[in-house]
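Margin note: ligand = adenosine monophosphate.
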Amino acid sequence: MNLILFGAPGAGKGTYASRLSSMFGIVSIATGDMFREEIKRDTPLGKKVAEYVRSGKLVPDAVVIDILAQRLKAREAEKGFILDGFPRTVEQAEALGKIAKMDAIVQIVVPEWIIVERLSNRRICSKCGTIYNLRYLKPKKEGVCDKCGGKLYHRDDDKPEVVKERLKVYEKQTQPLIEYYQWKTPIIKIENNEIDAPPEKTVDKIVEKLKRAKILKA
Ligand code: AMP
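Resulting structure:
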C-alpha cells in the first residue's frame, strides 16, 4: 500500500506516519527528516538546503524530487510506503505520478490554533526522531527520549516567526494539491479538533476509513 499523509505543518503527519508504518510493516519516508539529517551531517546536499529549511521556504522541486526518487528505488520501499511531507507542489505530485501509483491520500485537517500550540510544544528526539509534545505527549523524563534515551530538541523552524511562514507556504503552494488529486486518487479526510486526543485514536480512525474505502482489507 502506498499512502500520502497530507496536512499542514503540525497536523500530526509524522506522529501518525510512524505508527501506521509499524502497524502495516511498510516504510515511512519524510523528506523533512531527510533534509534535517543531511544538514546535521553537513553534507553538500545539507549545505544546499539549509537556508530553505531554516526560513520555512520550500526546497526547489528538482532537489526534492531527486532525493525522493532515490529513496523509492530502495528495496525497503518495495512493499509499500507512507509519504510524509511530500508532495508539496503540483510539480512534485506530477513527478511522483511517474514513479509510483498512490492508493490514497490521508488528509489531516486541524484548526490553526492547534497547529500553533502543537509546534511551540513539539520536541523531537535527536537520535531516533520520535515526536513528543510537552503538554499532550510528554516524555517520562524531561528532555529525554523514552525509546532510546536520546536528547530532545525544539526544531528551529518550529519557532513562531518561521511557523508563520511555513503556514503561508502551505496554504499557497501545498493546499491546492487536494484539488489536483480530487479525481485521481481517493482522499480520506480526517478532521481533528481536539488538541489532547491521543494519537492512537486518530490512527484508529484512519485505519477504519481506509477499510471502509476498501483501500485496506477488512
Ligand atoms: P517538514 O519536516 O515536513 O515540516 O519539512 C521541513 C522543511 O523541509 C520544510 O519547511 C522545507 O523547507 C523542507 N521540505 C521538506 N519536504 C519538502 C518538500 N516536499 N518540498 C520542498 N521542501 C520540503
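The beta strands are 2-7, 27-30, 81-84, 104-109, 122-125, 131-133, 152-153, 187-191.
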